[in-house]
Write a structure and sequence with these properties.
Blueprint (H helix, E strand, L loop, with lengths): L1 E5 L6 H9 L16 E10 L15 E3 L2 E10 L16 H4 L6 E7 L19 H34 L3 H8 L7 H11 L10 H15 L2 E6 L6 H11 L5 E3 L2 H12 L3 E2 L8 E2 L5 H14 L8 H12 L3 E5 L17 E3 L5 H8 L1 H5 L1 E6 L5 E2 L9 E7 L1
Parallel strand pairs: 1-4, 1-5, 5-6, 6-7, 10-14
Antiparallel strand pairs: 2-4, 3-4, 8-9, 10-11, 12-13, 12-14
Length: about 400
């Protein structure tokens, strides 16, 4: 799974990326700090199942803190996008192409409104409406999809009609590199009431089709960043009113980064996504004051600084992925003695058989049944997985 960070320059994408991954990246308050895309590993948080089995897990991937299991996901941070990016402006649309394989987007928005559309800092007293940043980025992403479609559309649409092939299947195959699936095409056709004869479509219908595919294959959550700066809360409330159908979550990537680095240094005990922490190390007055200010600012926020909430929302909300634990009812350890070493993320609608194939092709091909480690009940290949299932796959 790949989560792509998008937004204009200087919105805080690189800070968000570093806070989520603790990877070493360049951070600066000027446009195009990021030139080449940064990729790293972030984590989504799941309630671990170890306490249900009166044991303590030992993850092979990710980590577990106080019953909170952190499961790895890949995150990519690309250069900031400016108006006209789909036409090559800014640093060109090569950075959009880096995002082809993304399953979902997190748009990082400067909710304080302190920078212009190019990411340049505004003069004191001047601000920009963050709603404009959401609008322009949506438009650029839609144009990106539209331009990619139009490069092949004329010949592709004629060929599909001449061969009388299944249109939705042909589109999914042609644009599989954009993570377009056949079911997405069918949904868009149904929602827009479009025929499967693309030669009859108008220009507006083509654009609507491209936008629909983009929304389906690249769903997006809005990270209303810099929420702790003056004016940001009011801007956030306005965004929620202006875009009632968008998923907008307040956050402070800067504050999250400070907490995670303090935790890494052994100065505090902090579980990402929690709204409080415990000081355990020796702090100077400046450090203590900075951390206490963060505690005070986010004590009433449900998801703390918001970064972990946004990652979880992207994976479990936008994408509806399901965390599954491979586990035997009789033996929770692997061959190396690690207790409940794995937790995997599977797409919604996955079955026990899908899980078997996910683990290994041989498991899928030789599947007999799955066993629920909690109830020891046998489950057939069509059993639909539920979040935090603990399953053993039995093969012949």
């Amino acid at each position: 799974m790949l989560i792509g960070l998008v937004g204009k320059p200087s919105a805080g994408k690189s800070t968000f990326f570093k806070a989520a991954t603790l990877a070493e990246v360049a951070i600066a308050a000027y446009p195009f700090t990021t030139i080449k895309p940064n990729t790293g590993v972030g984590y989504v948080k799941v309630e671990c199942i170890d306490k249900e089995f009166n044991t303590k897990c030992n993850p092979s991937h990710g980590f577990c803190v106080d019953g909170k299991r952190f499961v790895p996901v890949e995150i990519m941070d690309v250069a900031g996008l400016v108006p006209g990016a789909s036409e090559g402006k800014g640093l060109g649309n090569q950075f959009l192409d880096d995002l082809r394989q993304a399953d979902a987007f997190i748009q990082v928005v400067d909710c304080s409104g302190r920078s212009n559309e190019k990411g340049e800092q505004l003069p004191e007293g001047k601000t920009r409406d963050p709603a404009d940043d959401i609008k322009f980025l949506e438009e650029e992403l839609n144009l990106w999809f539209y331009n990619l479609l139009m490069k092949v559309w004329k010949s592709f649409s004629k060929k599909t009609e001449m061969e009388r092939g299944k249109f939705s299947e042909a589109v999914a195959k042609q644009f599989s590199g954009l993570r377009v699936k056949e079911e997405y095409v069918k949904d868009v056709l149904r929602n827009l009431n479009l025929s499967e004869k693309p030669s009859e479509w108008s220009e507006k219908q083509l654009r609507n089709f491209a936008e629909g595919l983009r929304r389906k294959s690249k769903p997006m959550i809005i990270a209303a960043n810099k929420i702790d700066l003056p004016g940001a809360i009011d801007n956030y409330r306005k965004l929620r009113a202006d875009f009632p159908n968008l998923n907008i979550v307040p956050c402070s990537a800067d504050s999250e980064l400070a907490l995670r680095e303090a935790s890494k240094a052994g100065l505090i005990e902090y579980i990402p996504g929690e709204k409080d922490f415990k000081i355990i190390g020796e702090l100077n007055e400046k450090q203590k004051d900075a951390l206490e200010k963060i505690r005070e600012k986010f004590k009433d926020f449900v998801g703390g600084t918001g970064v972990q909430s946004i990652l979880n929302n992207a994976v479990f909300g936008l994408l509806s992925y399901i965390p599954i634990f491979p586990a035997s009812a009789n033996k929770l350890a692997d061959s190396k003695g690690n207790i409940l070493p794995d937790c995997f993320l599977l797409p919604p609608g996955s079955t026990a058989l899908d899980f078997a194939y996910f683990l290994h092709t041989d498991f899928g091909e030789n599947f007999i049944k799955a066993i629920d480690a909690r109830t020891k009940k046998a489950l057939g290949k069509n059993y639909e997985l539920k979040p935090r299932d603990a399953l053993e796959i039995v093969t012949r």
